[in-house]
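Hi support team,

I submitted a single chain yesterday and got back a structure, but I'm not sure I'm reading the token output correctly. Could someone confirm the output below corresponds to the sequence I sent? I've pasted both exactly as they appear in my results page.

Thanks,
R.
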Amino acid sequence: LENGILQGARLVLDQQLQLAANQIDRREGRYSQLYKTVATSCQVCGDRPPLWEIRAQRVVHDDAEQQLYFDNATFRVRGVPVFWLPRMRLPDPARERATGFLIPEQRNTTQLGSGIKVPYFITLGDHRDITLTPYLSPETRTLELIYRQAFANGDFSARAAISDDTLEPEDRSYIFAEGSFALRNDYQLRFDIEAVSDPAYLLDYGYSDKDRLDSAISLLRVTDTTLFQTRLTYYQTLRDDESNASLPPIVADLGYEARIFPNFGGTLTVSGGVDTAYRYSNTDGPEGRDVTRAGGQVDWRDSWVVPAGFVFSAETGLRADIYNVEDDSAFEQNDIRMVPFVQASLRWPLAKTTQSGTSHLIEPTIAIGWADTFGGTAPNEDSTRSELDPANLFDLSRFSGEDAVETGAQAALGLSWTRAGAVGTTSTLTFGRIVRDRAIDGFTRSSGLDGSQSDWLIAGQLVIPGGFLVEAQSLVDDDRGVNRATGRIAWQNEIVSLSADYIWQAKDAAEDRPVTISEWTLDTDLFLSAAWSVNLDARYDVVEDRPVRGGIGVQWRNECVTVDVSASRRFTSSTTVEPTTTYGLS
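Hi R., thanks for writing in. Yes, this is the structure output for that exact sequence:
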């Protein structure tokens, strides 16, 4: 049909948008001109007007450009005129990307007042686009930006904003950017950039909850038997009690690991690496210390099934490190350290299946190991927040990284029970403890790892058909009682998605925690009907007996309308951050 006239016709585009017109003229096999037109994506029931509609004197549909052009258009709700436009343009619903305005959002906060965001999407070819969002309120003039670009071998995206507001005398801004690219020979290049003008900006505008920013670039290659990774990271703190100079702000590392399968059996792992931590300050001591480490490790491990169904495993190896320490007289400037280690473990899996189809697996395990250091003592620049859990119960060392090492003889004892019910219910229960010949320095009291005997580790999980999940974990000291406890209840089906989490941590000055922490966190989605849904989230401090944050969102939607209403309150405050209440509507 190149040219023609249709009387009293209706045009449906991509089963989403219908246009009814007194007359449609077809021109050049490309243009359709509709006169006295009504356009809507709502269901039309008899003579009753749809929930919303656009009435126009003329509409031109361009098949080639996939665009709709309206002349003398009026937007109506239930037949009532709301606003009029002399000309307007809409993309064809079949078009995936088109330049134009997106859905606006109304935002009201106690700090920035009542404002509106109007995003404008711009296509820059088939592989790039940018979204510019002006945010205007009595307290701020902000321009937000999202840029995305896809390449043949990767992608890049960036989020940024710049603000002129009444909260700070200077302009405020931030940028979060990231990219990932596949290079030759299976190498992966990844990078991210995170920067902000002042510590409170991200929270004031709701862009992020991060209190430390990290910008990094890395090169990674993973094969079946090798791992290569090098990374450079720059840190910026937003915390009141920290400075960038002493974090350390610059951390770099390079590592390589290969697995070899010798003829005599087992797996031989060879690894090596270099890492450095640099601080701006030249102060003598931890706040100015710069550390560079170069080291390597060789270890061999294997396992055998021995009589009576026991599984015997053995591991042995040697680690060597060279340290260079600057600006800290408590350590030698150059030092060498050797760490030999050996470990053997014995597991006894006991399985049983009942007549009803329920299966049980009980597995007692004991691991005995030894390690020692010869040479100098290195400063620990790795994470100091170690914690006993089911994943590291049978590790030889539970310190993070390579700087700190558990030394001496030790034995890890554990018992696990797994039950798989015939109707789909599964449960697990784990007990464990570590016994050493001497106490190890470097572990905090509440980590569950200090002293010659660790805390008792108790962990369990229950999964019930219908989307129920219950799990809990605790560390119990013989004298002090519970040091840490966490719990989680989750329920997910077509009607509800519920997650309630609890955490309890004893006060510990070594972890900068002067008071006990006891908090609940709740995140819930309720689907009340096909049209209505409610989202609730909250965090409550039991010790302080006050909320930390709370929010509610209500959504109503049908085939042609989505309305989102939300309210949230952040109660936290500091010298740079004020409590904020936020309302949103779109």
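A quick pointer for reading it: The first strand starts at residue 4 and ends at 13. Let us know if anything else looks off.

Best,
Support desk
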